[in-house]
């Protein structure tokens, strides 16, 4: 059992995924003609936090909240306290208040002249994880030419110096940077933001690492964000899709998969850009990434496309309840996967574990809630519990299951089994990949429950056949015994080994080792713990002795044998099938 090393390239076990978006709204004040376009776009993107540029003062800030966000998702959004900046066009932050809490806001003094803007800094807390992070709203000096590039350089230099003081922190820098390329000669601002220096604490990173000369370059057509228009109306640029001005930069810590706040791979999107509209309007012809309605909304709402990405916050809760995943069959040979898959867990504690309300899931959409009405699903101390896709012995390859699940399946090469309790805490999880090399018809089992069951070297192929001929020990230990040993003294003098066959339809053989002549007692109990039969004073000799337990007088069911000597005793589960 282990406590989670997250694999981020797939998805996350749990925790919170949030969507961060930046969008230049294009001179928004109180524009009834465009508000429905914004709402349609938000309904498609479903962001949780939005940085916007070009709201016009307090009026634009207030109306975007009331006329757009409150119509989109009423009562879910708040705005960070608004700072009226030095230019007519301002920057603002909106967030879902059931996900985030606002801490503080301030300004980084990047404005160099009339008409330029300070960068706005917000400190926020992700409530479930209690992780605090900074997010910055940026709108650098616009237009091409050396003088404008130099003003962007000055703005970027001041911002980088500020970010360097946040070494090791989580931060996102979002907005309209108006940067044309990564050229150190013609557009040096980009290298100031993203390049190495004596202090790399504030270095910014492009999550998708698409660096180059973006301007009018078809090689970057899929990440261009301006302009979705080729006709002049309502202000703004109209040159078609040929610039990457809008960005979500992240700190290095957010790209570190061992962090508690992490960018989710492949989630960075220039929304509406299908890569097929270079130097064209976003709604020209077919758009293969969004509907015609959304393409038209993007075209009419602004001269920029919104950009979004998903970020994972570590609010996972782990708990050691003593239930450990000990065996997995992902690729049965005797029957199809849809009938023959199963996995086993073991209770390593000295108390009964109830599984009612627990969940089986993977990192994707597979999920099953363990729930049986009027019946407690429980594992006794030291016992095994088998989850299977089918409980029919004639079609599942002969797996005697304790619980049949649905809505969950196991890939033959790469998948996860995650066991969560009724409170949503992770009890145990196993993530396997192609290196585990599951063979057809052979399960893998862990031999020591105290070892990390996410390391392939701690798993072994089963060597014992069951049912229709596949190999595995569902409901057994890897040695073939069904239950745990309870010893008081002299543990090496008396050993009850595997019972075979089991399941059986007439009798099963009990193999016992003893280093001396002695007598044993065999007691039979039903599922309710009622004693059905006791055989006393059974004589065994030194070495191995084989005894038979006959089921001719019993109906098909599960029974328990208590096999006792003077020094110790064993419980064994037996399954009688007639």
Describe the structure.
The chain is built from six helices and 35 strands. The protein has 578 residues and is mainly beta. The protein has three domains: 17-313, Deoxyribonuclease I, Chain A; 323-471, Immunoglobulin-like (Sandwich), CATH 2.60.40.1260; 485-576, Immunoglobulin-like (Sandwich). Helix 1 packs across helix 2 (57-72) and helix 1 packs across helix 5 (292-301). It is elongated, with a radius of gyration of 32 Å. The two termini are 38 Å apart. The model is unreliable at 1-14 and 482-491 (pLDDT under 50).
Class of the largest domain in CATH? Answer: Alpha Beta
> Which shape, going by the Cα principal axes?
elongated
Q: Could you tell me the CATH topology label of the largest domain.
A: Deoxyribonuclease I, Chain A
Overall pLDDT metric? 90
In short:
The protein has 578 residues and is mainly beta. It folds into three domains: 17-313, 4-Layer Sandwich (Deoxyribonuclease I, Chain A), CATH 3.60.10.10; 323-471, Sandwich (Immunoglobulin-like), CATH 2.60.40.1260; 485-576, Immunoglobulin-like.
Main attributes of the structure:
578 residues; mainly beta; Deoxyribonuclease I, Chain A; Immunoglobulin-like; 3 domains; 7-stranded mixed sheet; 6-stranded mixed sheet; 35 strands; 12% helix; disordered N terminus
């Amino acid at each position: 059992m282990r406590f989670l090393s997250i694999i981020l390239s797939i998805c996350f076990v749990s925790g919170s995924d949030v969507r961060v978006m930046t969008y230049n709204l294009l001179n928004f004040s109180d524009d009834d003609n465009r508000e429905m376009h914004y709402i349609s776009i938000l309904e498609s993107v479903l962001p949780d936090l939005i940085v916007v540029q070009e709201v016009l003062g307090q009026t634009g800030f207030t109306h975007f909240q009331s006329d757009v966000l409150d119509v989109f998702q009423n009562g879910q959004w708040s705005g960070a306290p608004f700072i009226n900046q030095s230019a007519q066009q301002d920057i603002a932050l909106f967030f879902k208040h059931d996900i985030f809490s606002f801490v503080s806001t301030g300004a980084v003094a990047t404005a160099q002249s009339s008409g330029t803007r300070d960068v706005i800094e917000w400190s926020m807390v992700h409530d479930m994880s209690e992780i605090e992070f900074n997010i910055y709203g940026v709108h650098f000096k616009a237009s091409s030419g050396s003088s404008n590039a130099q003003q962007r350089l000055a703005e970027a230099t001041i911002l980088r110096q500020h970010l360097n003081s946040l070494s090791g922190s989580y931060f996102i820098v979002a907005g309209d940077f108006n940067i044309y390329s990564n050229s150190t000669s013609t557009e040096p601002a980009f290298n100031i933001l993203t390049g190495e220096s004596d202090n790399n604490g504030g270095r910014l990173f492009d999550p998708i690492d698409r660096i180059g000369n973006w301007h009018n370059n078809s090689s970057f057509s899929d990440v261009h964000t301006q302009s979705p228009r080729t006709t002049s109306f309502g202000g703004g640029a109209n040159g078609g899709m040929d610039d990457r001005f809008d960005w979500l930069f992240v700190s290095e810590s957010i790209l570190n998969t061992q962090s508690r706040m992490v960018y989710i791979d492949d989630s960075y999107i220039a929304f509406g850009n299908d890569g097929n509209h270079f130097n064209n309007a976003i709604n020209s012809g077919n758009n293969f990434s969004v509907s015609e309605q959304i393409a038209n909304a993007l075209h009419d709402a602004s001269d920029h496309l919104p950009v979004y990405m998903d970020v994972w916050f570590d609010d996972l809760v782990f708990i050691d309840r003593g239930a450990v995943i000990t065996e997995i069959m992902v690729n049965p040979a005797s029957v199809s996967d849809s009938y023959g898959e199963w996995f086993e867990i073991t209770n390593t504690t000295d108390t009964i574990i109830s599984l009612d309300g627990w969940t089986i899931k993977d990192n994707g959409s597979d999920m099953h809630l363990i729930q049986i009405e009027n019946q407690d699903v429980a594992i006794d101390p030291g016992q095994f519990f088998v989850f299977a896709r089918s409980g029919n012995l004639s079609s599942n390859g002969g797996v005697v299951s304790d619980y049949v699940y649905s809505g969950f399946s196991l890939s033959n090469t790469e998948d996860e089994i995650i066991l969560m309790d009724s409170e949503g805490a992770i009890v145990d999880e196993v993530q396997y990949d192609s290196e585990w090399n599951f063979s057809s018809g052979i399960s893998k089992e862990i031999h020591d429950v105290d070892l990390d069951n996410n390391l392939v070297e701690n798993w072994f192929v089963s060597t014992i056949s069951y049912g229709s001929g596949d190999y595995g020990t569902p409901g057994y230990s890897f040695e073939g015994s069904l239950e745990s040993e309870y010893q008081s003294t002299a543990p090496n003098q008396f050993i009850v080994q595997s019972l075979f066959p089991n399941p059986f339809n007439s009798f099963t053989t009990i193999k016992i080792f003893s280093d001396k002549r002695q007598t044993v007692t065999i007691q039979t109990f039903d599922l309710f713990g009622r004693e059905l039969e006791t055989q006393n004073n059974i004589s065994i000799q030194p070495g191995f002795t084989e005894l038979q337990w006959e089921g001719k007088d019993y109906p098909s069911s599960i029974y328990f044998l208590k096999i006792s000597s003077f020094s110790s005793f064993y419980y064994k589960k037996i399954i009688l099938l007639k």
